[in-house]
Amino acid sequence: MEQALRFPARSGDDNRVRGASVSLTNLVKSYGGVTAVAGVSLDIRSGEFLTLLGPSGCGKTTTLMMIAGFESPSIGDIAIDGASVTAMPPYRRNIGMVFQNYALFPHLTAAENIGFSLKQRGVPKAERARLVSEALELVQLSTYGERYPRQLSGGQQQRVAVARAIVFKPRLLLMDEPLGALDKKLREDLQIEMRRLHAELGITFILVTHDQDEALIMSDRIAVMNEGKIAQIGRPVDLYDRPCNRFVAGFIGQSNFLPAVVCGLEGDVVVTKCQGVLVRAVTSQRPAIGAEVSVTIRPERLRFADSTTERASSANCLNVTVTEAVFAGERWRYVLSSDSGGSMVLNEASGAMIRRRAVGESAEITWSVADTILV
What positions belong to coiled-coil segments (predicted)? Predict the structure, then answer.
């Protein structure tokens, strides 16, 4: 059974390194007539865990490769700690890198793989052995140093790749889908452990992933990319609760999207006509009366109204019919149809004391204005 990472207790901050700051200024990367990155500007703070999140082809990996130096920008600049590195070769940037396929040398042991970069840097043998031993201990592979990659599980190979990337104490670690090849349970365990590793070392982490759950769990901030640009950047909770547009709302987590027409404004609240009823939503925009818009609500923010008190306490409500009920372990997933024909999904926690809804049953659902976002 795969063992999750556990970091040894250490006195003081001996392992901590001040992370590098990274600034991207109007980065553009074109391949012939195709633009992969279309003007990305981003400031990454020292010691931050930042994730570039987006679908395949959105430009996130190309952006990471430009930071690493494996790709050159067509336009723009990359600065590390305030100094431009755009013209600097990768080996001079002092950056650690973890690839999706781990890229371990099959003919070298785990210890030799980890120590390879130290050997290339001319680190004396005794010092190299000490640093490799520390790195193996850090990723809980102290007794696996003499094993070859073929003798290690996928999770153990991933840890060797991480140890190799941090053994020379870089101030910046880049990771390209590092957990993508692992099974779901191990991947979830290692997401938490990578956060612990980040906290212990103090290195600036930049992660590329298309896995929204991974990004939400691991990141200090997330930059959501789409079509070569940053669609929104912010803390995970802010992106989840306040997506700036339909793409972000749909890509991070599940969302219900309902067409609506603006009827009025009440301060920061927009009153809309939606599914035949008045629905209030929050927004930073000032849409015109009569404008056609969409409102979005997360499935877990909807609830069934079982009493007059509950209905009265919620600003938004809608009559629906249950068209599908699916048990998904920790939750039930209901597909609902409104009287006007619109469809919504409601996620409700499963439990012995919670009444289940039957297909064909009529019900009323309610949700908070604060959880209703105009996009």
Answer: none
What would the mean pLDDT of 325-334 be, rounded to a whole number?
93
Count other C-beta atoms under 10 Å from residue 186's C-beta: 18
pLDDT of residue 275: 86
Q: SS3 for 267?
A: coil
Same fold? 22-94+170-246, 254-374: no
Query: What backbone torsions phi and psi does residue 285 show, to the nearest 5 degrees?
Result: -85, 170
Which phi and psi (to 5°) does residue 60 adopt? -70, -45
Residue type for position 247: F
For the whole model, what pTM was predicted? Answer: 0.87
CATH class, 22-94+170-246 region:
alpha beta
CB 164 within 8 A of CB 95: no
Q: Which two tokens stand for residue 223?
A: 């930059």
In eight-state DSSP terms, residue 94 is -
Q: Do residues 295 and 375 lie in contact, with contact meaning Cβ atoms separated by under 8 Å?
A: yes
Say whether domain 254-374 belongs to CATH 2.40.50.100.
yes
Token representation of residue 214: 């991974």
User: What is the biggest distance separating any 2 CA atoms in the chain, rounded to whole angstroms?
Assistant: 76
Mean of pLDDT over the chain = 89
Token pair of 119 as six digits: 């050997």
- Pairing type for strands 256-266 and 269-274 reads antiparallel
Band of residue 322 on the pLDDT scale cut at 50, 70, 90: very high
The confidence score (pLDDT) of residue 4 equals: 39
Domain positions in the chain: 22-94+170-246, 254-374
pLDDT at 307: 60
**Whole-angstrom distance, CA of residue 129 vs CA of residue 112:** 9
CA–CA separation, 237 and 226 (whole Å) = 19
